[in-house]
Amino acid sequence: MKGIYRMIKLFLVFLLVPFSIFAQINKPDSIYAFKTNEKIKIDGHLNERSWNEAVAISNFRQREMEEGALPSEKTKVAILYDKNNLYIGFWGYDSAPDKLVAKQMKRDFSWDSEDNFEFILGTYNDSRNGFLFVINPNGARADAIIGNEGSQFIKDWNGVWDVRTIVNDKGWFAEVVIPFSTLSFQKDSIQNWQINFERNIKRKNEQLLWQGFLRQYELERISRAGILVGLKGIKSKTLFEFKPYVTVGVEKTSYEPLDKIAKIGGEINSNITPTLKMNITVNTDFAQVEADDAKVNLSRFNLYYKEKRQFFLEGSNYFDFRTGHRNLLYYSRRIGLENGTAVPIYGGVRLFGKAGKNNIGFMSMQTGNVDAQYTDDSIAIQSTNYSVLRYRRDVMENSNAGFVVTSKIRKDGRKNIVYGGDFNYRNSNFMGNRNLGFGMTLAKSYTDNMDNSHSLAYNSYVYYSTDIVRAISSITGTQENYNPELGFVRRENYRAYYTTLVYKPRFKSLKNIRNFEFVPYEFVAYVDDKTNELQSLWYELAPFGVVTKSGDRIFAKYQRTYENIDEEFEIFDTTTVPVGKYWNNGYEFGFETFRGRKIATEFQVNYEGFYHGTRLRTRLNLDMNVNKHLNFYLNWNRNYIEFPSNDFVVHEFGSKIEYAFNPKLYTSIFSQWNNDDEEIILNYRINWIPKIGSDFYFVINQLIDKETGKYKLKTTTVLVKFVWRFTA
To answer: For residues 212 and 198, what is the distance between their CA atoms, to the nearest angstrom?
Structure first.
């Protein structure tokens, strides 16, 4: 009986702890912006008189390692403003500044492995959306747009702002300036914005937050933020922005003479309202974009590639609509790329932002023609219009509902139209401070000269989470004639049933262990939507996973899989997978070392049944930091596959060398190779930021292949691109 009583007592404690507001609200929970007439020199020294007159906050608490505990190092933040800019001062006192972890200096650095200072600004005051800014002791800076409290994370947004830092024997310190023109906010004489701050002391794995510092909340959970008060008489000044570009270069192939490249275009950005932006682009160009990762497809499904083009990334959260994992109604890579062929973009217009509780995203882009001789499949590509209208309405405290329409209309009149609606409920106050959400999505496609019956896609989901437990279930599907030509669908004609439970307990008695990670089950079953026959099944059990207080992670997993192959398909050169029904088992082990070290490693090995054979899969990532200027990155994937008829090895290798002269001058060499395509892809880039908002790029792309039996240089492209920002 005593054992049962103890279990009941522990359960009640587990249930009731989230009701406590401890470690969630810090008083004071507002920070006052001090208006200054003094000229603030952005140099990191924080020695202007105004910084002493401003009221600073220092009441941070730990989110990690000890939730709610006082910081081990003092942190202070103050805010100033004038008619044009917001200034944020950061005092990061440190008892051992020589041990700061600051490995990078480039813009958009990977801040997870660094000492850093982060802050989020919710200028919409909608407890959903905001702007994230991150700096490290080297003066490296990164930014992102946050949508739906972190469920949408647009890291590739590049706002116009600047920072300077210094490091001395007391710690590290920073001055940040953000022009009000970078932010979107309503025309009110008095502004009260949501704001929150985070500091990471990486050598201790200590994370400090000002507000909302329960472990189940992160900085992006803007509904848990504090309030910035004191802003009066400000306005978003820039109503017009012009960014012309010039691209010049040459291209030489092994079988054609030297080809000259010259291109002129640009963008015009205008604020229709302080929170609604119009963007017009002409002769759009992406010469500066880094090459895609070359992947070997060992499955029968489409591969997904992330968007890397800045033009489409800005404001992408206003266009997002999906009917499940990697099932997108709008996939921006369809524009300007078709079957591996680059298609010229004549131009287009976009309108995105907020109007009260309304989130709006509209885009219409026009692409050009490509002759058959220049396409990969020798079929001419017609000029095409791509359009998207996405509307989402904020409802209740943190939920939304909306609709979307996409269209793809070719020059010959053929059209593909998809429309749909969704509802998403989110509650971060369920049973106190737990997270509960559910939602539904439905879409239908219409395509000329196709059977448009049975052309639906749908998704419904429910999730529940705390810091210790996460549970998710969903039902997703696409019917046999669903055809989103401006979207992405990895698998067709299916229903998928997915569920998972993750348990991450912590035990204070274990001094070197931060938490364990157990996954009793993660399960997904795919059923043919027409015949109801099982297509695929994947089950995973993770009976062991541990994260140390030093930041290392070790895990072991077991998988059970099923594949029903009703039509043979080819993988790796001429090897085919025959028709059949395959049940297999898999075993996986891996570890990750703390990324804050000079050398960090991630290693995974998986041995599993693979269709009618076996596969031994090995993955290795290696990050090497020489100093704040120089970093090396290596990744290697190896698949050794044995079939009854043959065996083969697939190698995929990538490497990157980065050198940052300073936070505004950065260069990199990126290379990749695999033994399926037998190609070496080289990409060399220099990015110089002469002033915030303007860019200079120098790019060399080379392709080396093995068509003649030995590696030979096939294509070399040298490009220079210059973008300059004018405002009025």
So the answer is: 10
* Domains in the chain with CATH codes: 25-232 (2.60.40.1190)
DSSP bridge pairs for 112: none
C-alpha closest to that of 406 among 329, 307, 311, 332: 329
The three-state (H, E, C) secondary structure of 659-702, written as one string: EEEECCEEEEEEEEEECCCCEEEEEEEEEECCCCCCEEEEEEEE
Residue 150 region by backbone torsions, left for phi larger than 0, else alpha for psi between -120 and 50, else beta: left
Asked if 622 and 599 count as a contact pair (C-beta separation under 8 A), the reply is yes
pLDDT tens digits, residue range 406-448? 999 998 889 999 999 999 998 877 877 788 999 999 999 999 9
DSSP 632: E
Residue type, 327: N
Whether 615 shows a pLDDT value over 50: the answer reads yes
pTM: 0.81
Q: Which residues contact 103 (CB under 8 A, 6 or more apart)?
A: 113, 114, 596, 598, 625, 628, 631
φ/ψ bin of 701: left (φ > 0), alpha (ψ from -120 to 50), beta (otherwise): beta
Binned at pLDDT 50, 70 and 90, residue 292 comes out as low
- Residue 6 parent element (H or E): helix 2-16
| pLDDT tens-place string over residues 646-691 | 899 999 999 999 999 999 999 999 999 988 888 899 999 999 999 8
- Please give the Cα distance from 642 to 647 (Å, whole number): 4
Inter-CA distances, 612 with 520, 578, 615, 651, Å: 28, 8, 10, 21
Q: Tell me the C-alpha distance between 299 and 326, whole Å.
A: 15
Pick the closest to residue 505 from 491, 520, 525 (CA basis). 520
CA distances 121 to 2, 145, 193, 394, Å, are 51, 10, 7, 19
Question: In this structure, are strands 30-35 and 226-232 parallel, antiparallel, or unpaired?
Answer: parallel
The whole-number average pLDDT for the span 39-60 is 92
